[in-house]
Amino acid sequence: MTILVTGGAGFIGSNFVLDWLKDDATQGESVVNLDALTYAGNLRNLASLKGDARHRFVQGDICDCSLVDRLLAEHQPRAIVHFAAESHVDRSIHGPGAFIRTNVEGTFTLLEAARAYWGTLQGAAKEAFRFHHVSTDEVYGSLQPSDPAFTETHPYEPNSPYSASKAASDHLVRAWHHTYGLPVLTTNCSNNYGPYHFPEKLIPLMIVNALAGKPLPVYGDGQQIRDWLYVSDHCSGIRAVLARGRVGETYNIGGWNEKPNLDIVHTVCALLDELQPSAQGPYARLITYVKDRPGHDRRYAIDARKIERELGWRPAETFETGIRKTVQWYLTHQDWVAEVQSGSYRDWVAANYAHR
Questions:
Q1: Residues 6+ away with beta carbon under 8 Å from 70
Q2: How far is CA 56 from the centre of its chain?
Q3: How many CB atoms sit inside 10 A of residue 341's CB?
Q4: Cβ contacts of residue 4 below 8 Å, gap of 6+?
């Protein structure tokens, strides 16, 4: 038995692959891992799987229909778990074209390949096949402070090129189910954090900059609220949906941890003060307020009661336990951080923050 994972060398995808292959419940089920290895994909995330016959890595683009067709025909996976995406709002503002190509055209290519492959299956294999699409809470738009959290039926109101491209991909997945009968599952997650997170996102950026004595850039007043989900909890939620979710349904996966960005930064600083204090004084001295990004959503919040009610899933980590594990991981993996901070990463940081 095999599953095909797209984007399995990225942050969430690599954590999913690692968790999948160490989880007794999967009984050693193998993974074909398709990733284009753009700036955020890193084979070093998967170094512990070197020599593991259950993991086959293929470098390639999800927009390459002939490659996807060949992989499906060759490996006959029972499921596709689709992580591959451009995922950073700031990057989408600077260059939206890549987001349309990967998130919209790439998802279309996968859906068409999956539909053709599924059509060749017979009996139990056809009945069991699933296309699991991994999406984001950002497709729902922004909430006011007193608004109830996003449910699975909340209207789509994407506000950035990134969230618009993910919303488009969600709609394609839904349409391929209702029009063609393709057995799909969709999950919309809140902000992930944890090991192997590329240091352009808030938490790893704060850790990396603090350790280097660099400014900790906080957008606007820092009161933008997000729900925070430890990445291994997200992976376990996906496994639950893949195993027991109802075909055609959407499940929100959240951490029940709504916190303002500024609180997150202060928490990271306090943990670093405890675990690796700076001779120059508390890390919070580095906090620097910068111009807010265009169209910055004020609040996201996930209502994850459906997945708990139907599938019995809840996150195992609190924010306090998860953030401590995350900071400790970065402290003990500074060689990984140094490797991913390439010239292209430095160029992006300069382009995004130089004029704020």
A1: none
A2: 21
A3: 15
A4: 31, 32, 34, 71, 72, 75, 77, 79, 80, 81
315: which residues sit within 8 A by CB, 6+ positions away? 229, 230, 233, 237, 254, 255, 256
Residue 242 has pLDDT above 90, yes or no: yes
Q: 35, 61, 138, 297: which is the annotated catalytic residue? A: 138
What pTM was computed for the model? Answer: 0.94
Strands (E), 214-354: 216-219, 225-230, 250-253, 258-260, 287-290
CA-closest candidate to residue 39, choices 333, 341, 334: 341
User: Would you tell me which CATH number, out of the four given (3.40.50.10470, 3.30.1120.10, 3.40.50.720, 3.90.550.10), belongs to the domain 2-193+229-255+295-316?
Assistant: 3.40.50.720
**Partners of 150 in the beta sheet?**
302
Among candidates 133, 167, 158, which has minimal Cα distance to 62? 133
Other C-beta atoms lying within 10 Å of the C-beta of residue 21: 18
- Known catalytic membership, residue 162: yes
Q: Is residue 338's pLDDT more than 60?
A: yes
Place of tokens 């160029």: 347
User: Which member of 117, 140, 162, 219 is catalytic?
Assistant: 162
**pLDDT tens digit sequence for 130-165:** 999 999 999 999 999 999 999 999 999 999 999 999
Q: Give the DSSP H or E segment for 35.
A: strand 30-35
Please report, for the chain, the start and end positions of each structural domain, with discontinuous segments joined by +. Answer: 2-193+229-255+295-316
Task: Tell me if 12 sits within 8 A of 83, measured CB to CB.
Answer: yes
Q: What is the DSSP letter of 221?
A: T
pLDDT at 266 over 60: yes
Q: How far out from the chain centre does Cα 191 lie?
A: 8
Which position has the token pair 């699975």? 152
List the catalytic residue out of 35, 61, 90, 137: 137
CA distance 44 to 337: 11
Per-residue pLDDT of 300-312, as tens digits, reads 999 999 999 999 9
- Distances 56 to 11, 145, 196 between C-alpha atoms, Å: 18, 45, 20
Catalytic residue check, 137: yes
With a cut of 80, say whether residue 212 has pLDDT above it.
Answer: yes
Mean pLDDT of the chain: 94
